[in-house]
Amino acid sequence: MATSCVIGLLWGDEGKGKIIDLLAQDADYVVRCAGGHNAGHTIISPAGKLVLHLVPSGAFRDHVVNVIGSGVVVDPWHLEQEVARLREVGAPVELGRSLLVSERAQVILPVHRAMDQVAEHMRGGGRIGTTGRGIGPAYADRASRSGIRMGDLLRPAHLADAVARSFAEKAPLLAAHDVEVPDAAAVAEELAGLGERLAAGIADTGDLLRAAERDGRRILLEGAQGVLLDVDHGTYPYCTSSSSSTAGCAVGTGLPPAALSSVTGVVKAYATRVGEGPFPSELFDSEGDALRDAGNEYGSTTGRPRRCGWFDAVAVRYSVDVSGTREVFLTNLDVLRGFRPLRVASAYELPDGTRIERFPAFELDQLRPVYEEFDGFDEDVTGARTWQDLPAAARGFVEAIEARIGAAIPMVSVGPGRDEVVRR
Ligand code: IMP
Predict the structure, then answer these.
(1) Do residues 206 and 70 lie in contact, with contact meaning Cβ atoms separated by under 8 Å?
(2) What digits encode the pLDDT tens for the residues 176-211?
(3) 14-17: long-range contacts at Cβ-Cβ below 8 A with a sequence spacing of 24 or more?
(4) Protein residues whose CB sits closer than 6 Å to any atom of ligand 1
(5) What distance lies between CA 13 and its chain's CA centroid?
C-alpha cells in the first residue's frame, strides 16, 4: 500500500466509505485530506450501518490512527458530537491515540453556516444546492487569510479577537439579509472550551505523516466528494470549495506529492448527483425513479433524493485522467438487476449535432448523451464473490465500462456489506 489514495470519480456518493473501511485493514493511518462534514461516508461496521462525516473511515479498525488533515475544514462542535456518537456504538475512537486533527485545519464557525445560507439565497436560480454546513465560506476565509485554525483553539488569548474580526467582516451582509449575527464573545468562549476538550487530538499531523512515510508506514488517504466536485477541475461553479481530486491529497496533508504511490478511483455502475448543476446522463423518467428506489439513493448527509442516471463513460474517463487513477472499484452493480437494456454514455452530442468524446468545461447543460446499450441481468448478484459467479451479462457490462474509461476494474462491489465484493 505505501501511500495510496481513494478518490470518488463523479460527484461524490460513490461508496468510498466501504472501500476505505476495507483497505483500512492493511493501513496504519487513514487520513481525510479535504472537505468537511459535508461528506457522508457510509460503512457497515460491527455496530451496524453508520455514516461518518468528519472522522476518517478507519474509525472501526483498532490498529489505525485516523487523521483529519490540514486541508479539511472542521466544525469543532460537530467533531465533538461525532466522536461521542462513535464511542457510544463501540468504535475505538480516542483523541490523541486513534484520532488526530491537524492544528492547521481551518475551523467552521456558526457565522460560516449563516453565510452559506445567504450566499445560496443571493444566487437565486443559480443556487448550487450546498449542504448548508458552511464549507464554502470557511474555505473563502482560508483563501482571504482571515480564517481560524484548530491550533488557535489552544490559544484563547487571541481567539476572542480573531472571532470578533471574522464576525464583524460578515455582519453587514448578514444584517442586510435579516440574519442574526451570533454573539462573537460567546462563540469564542465556547471555542476555548472545545479547545480544552479536544486538545489531546490537535497536533502537527503534517510532521507526523511525513515521518510515518519515511518510516515506510502504510498511509491511506481518504478522498471526500469526487473529481467532478473539485473546485478547479469539477463542474464549476456547481462544485464544492476544495481540491477533491488527487492533488488535494498532498495539499491537504503536507505530504509531498511524490509520496503518493497509487490512486484507486471509486464509481458506481450508474451515476448520481445531489445538489444542482449539470449531469449529462441524468434520467428524468420512471427509470430514474426506479434506480433511486433500487439503490436507495438519498443523500447520507442531507437526506435529499439523489438525481440518478446512466453510467457516463465520458465523464469518468475525464476524472480517471485528472486523478491519475489506474484501478477502479466499481460499486452498486447489484442495483442494476432487472434493468433492461443497460446503458452507458460513451460520447456527447452538441446542439449543432457535433459528436464529442471529451468532457468540456462549459455548456455542459447543452450536451446530449450518446448511449450504447448492453444486455441486462435478472439474477441476484449479492452472493457473487468470484468473477465467474457473476452472470455473463453483468461481466459483459463491467468489461464494456472498463474498455471505455481507460482504467482496470479489479474489484466490483455487489452489496453494502464488507464482504460483498467480487475480486477478479
Ligand atoms: P458544499 O460542499 O456544501 O459547499 O456543497 C457544494 C456541492 O457539493 C453541492 O452540490 C453538494 O450537494 C455537493 N456535495 C458536497 N459534499 C458532498 C458529498 O460528500 N457527496 C455528494 N455531494 C456533495
Answers:
(1) yes
(2) 999 988 899 999 999 999 999 999 999 999 999 999
(3) 14/226, 14/266, 14/267, 14/268, 14/331, 15/42, 15/266, 15/268, 15/329, 15/331, 15/332, 15/413, 16/41, 16/57, 16/222, 16/223, 16/224, 16/266, 17/41, 17/42, 17/43, 17/51, 17/52, 17/57
(4) 11-13, 38-40, 128-131, 133, 135-136, 224-225, 229, 240-241, 274-275
(5) 7
